[in-house]
Amino acid sequence: MPKRVLTGLIVSDKGDKTVVVNVERKVKHALYGKIIRRSKKYHAHDEANEYKQGETVRIEETAPISKLKTWKVIDRVNTHATPERVEVGADA
Question: Tell me: the pLDDT tens digits for 61-91?
Fold first, then answer.
């Protein structure tokens, strides 16, 4: 069975080697059809304590590490990437 991968925002990095990641999803209400937001917090393993609060990260399901931790942080999602600069004028 493949490991699940989720993307979310770190809401706490106070624990040692642990971050709390808030994962938000959008679902359609069964009766009214309105799109509503549902969120859940996951405790994820961060071996080097390198991820900080406010960063967007991807987490992957693992074997249980502790009572609450069954996820580990894979990498940062670069949400603040700047687009490549395009020169206009000389060749156009």
Answer: 999 999 999 999 999 998 666 556 666 666 5
Task: Give the chain's count of helices (H) and strands (E).
Answer: 0, 5
Report the relative pairing of strands 18-28 and 35-45 from DSSP bridges.
Answer: antiparallel
Please identify which residue in the block is written with the tokens 């069975």.
Answer: 1
Reading the block at residue 17, the tokens are 């080697």
pTM: 0.80
Q: Is 75 left (phi over 0), alpha (psi -120 to 50) or beta?
A: beta
Under a CB-based contact definition with an 8 Å cutoff, are residues 45 and 59 in contact? Answer: no
Which is it for strands 18-28 and 5-12: parallel, antiparallel or unpaired?
antiparallel
